[in-house]
Amino acid sequence: MSQAFSHRVLPYDRADDLLDGVLPFLREGIESGDRVLAVTTLAMHMLLRDTLGADAAGVEFFESDKWYAHPARYLADTLALAETAAWQKRRLRVLGEPTWARRGPLELLEWQRVEAITNAAFTGTGAALLCAYSRSLSPGVVAASRQTHPETTRGTSTLANPGYQEPWAYNARLDATPLHPAPDDSYKLDIDVPDLYWIRAYVTNFARRTPLPEDDLQRLLVAVTEVVTNALRHGRPPITLRLWLEPGELVCEVTDHGHWTERTGFGLIPPKPVGGAGRFGLWAVRLLCSTVQIRTGRDGTTVRLRLQVPAVVVPMPVNSA
Which residue has the higher pLDDT, 262 or 182? Predict the structure, then answer.
């Protein structure tokens, strides 16, 4: 793959501003024989189809809400497409309009983290990613886009972002914010003996008192097993597991008194298969959970797993009168 990987942000105020940057990007890919994807809203799909005319046949259209449903899965799926295209001597070219509305503060941070890590994960793929950001988004989201994208697109021009931060430095800055303490009334299990059967039973007992679906419980059990195993291998006692509920989420936390070190950023990038077989590790934990938060230092290590739980609907009483 001779082309260099590019990751650019396209800030826009109006549809005309968006099209001025998007159309040259898409048409260049169509003419070059790239695999061209437009991941946007349905309204933008219609506008692009009308504007591109016959050229729209060279573009694959996907909905933003589905494409950007989960940070780690998005990264894995898009990276796989880029690597497959490179193997086929083609270039993956993606116009993306990430979904920022209706996301809570923690979700926003995780997606901003993914935008930053993209610059490390896609190195060598030759992919071209153009991310559209409406200036109607919150100022914090727009400002972060300039820190997580090396370049800005304006029409056919490309400018370097002076505020761009190297991905691991950006990630470290996010992780410098301490986690809030676990609630005093959280369920607590001190892990004195590495009995994974009892640990899974303890987690199951708590989770089945919550609205967490059974499929998600099984994902949680696999993730907890991996995290506890890491704590036993790389951490130091005492090791403690805590469980509690927050609005819309079940939270499971594992703490130990060791300082973890890992060169791959604690599973932020999909690991390459070794000897023809994949590794599990913290990357798969991120795939299994809604969000994974890790803090490590001289005072110990905390891994906090979050899974979304559906809202409980209380049925209205039947009027028997």
Answer: 182
